[in-house]
């Protein structure tokens, strides 16, 4: 009997302490972001590409479509519209440019400034990840998650 008790105690102790010692998962890596200098250039690209206007127009279109579909009153529509803020979405755009170096960003900026066709069909709106993130953001916006 004592033989069985010893093993029972050993199994019990191992089952308690082994999970505490073992680490099965690690934290995910942080989101890639551009350097501080590159953020300045990305901000200039956002301005040159008129992306804030595109962002606002896209959000307004989603809000207006939902308001019409769900028959919102003017107060709710105005409240949701007032919660549009590019700062809440800016990191998604920064992440897209995280792997560009300063020379590539400067070159892209100069193309946006010189050629107006880049302002309507630009790399930001053509990026599927940013477009998907914008769709998710607009859905959250319409659900009222950014209303203060």
TrEMBL record:
<keyword id="KW-0732">Signal</keyword>
<protein>
    <recommendedName>
        <fullName>DUF4476 domain-containing protein</fullName>
    </recommendedName>
</protein>
<feature type="signal peptide">
    <location>
        <begin position="1"/>
        <end position="20"/>
    </location>
</feature>
